[in-house]
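Before relying on records like the one below, remember that each one covers exactly one chain. Contacts with other chains, cofactors or solvent are not represented anywhere in the record.
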Amino acid sequence: MAKRVLVVEDNELNLKLFCDLLRAHGHEVLPLRDGRDLLHQAREFHPDLVITDIHLPHISGLDLIVSLKRDAQLSSVPVMAVTAYAGQGDEERIRGAGAQAYVSKPISVLRFVEQVNGLL
């Protein structure tokens, strides 16, 4: 049975890459370009995993993770954060917000797939 993955990414090329990789591995994917739609869309889609960029317009990925973890219906959904800004202490902050996995950009396709498989 296909797992459902919701991907929040504002960069079109990254969004396409992530979705193509996930679909190639048999997953059903819902792409979102605007994180402000996340909670509503996640409640309707019932994802098995949420992948979110951290630096998004309008709302930060950290705030999205916190919102997901505070939502009774979505709190158990694992979250994988993906970010280009991998500075000292970033991984700890992101995991502290509730993310179960962290991948820095540019991504290694192998590492991305391994992290996804580890969460599903």
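Helices lie at 12-24, 38-45, 61-70, 90-97, 109-119.
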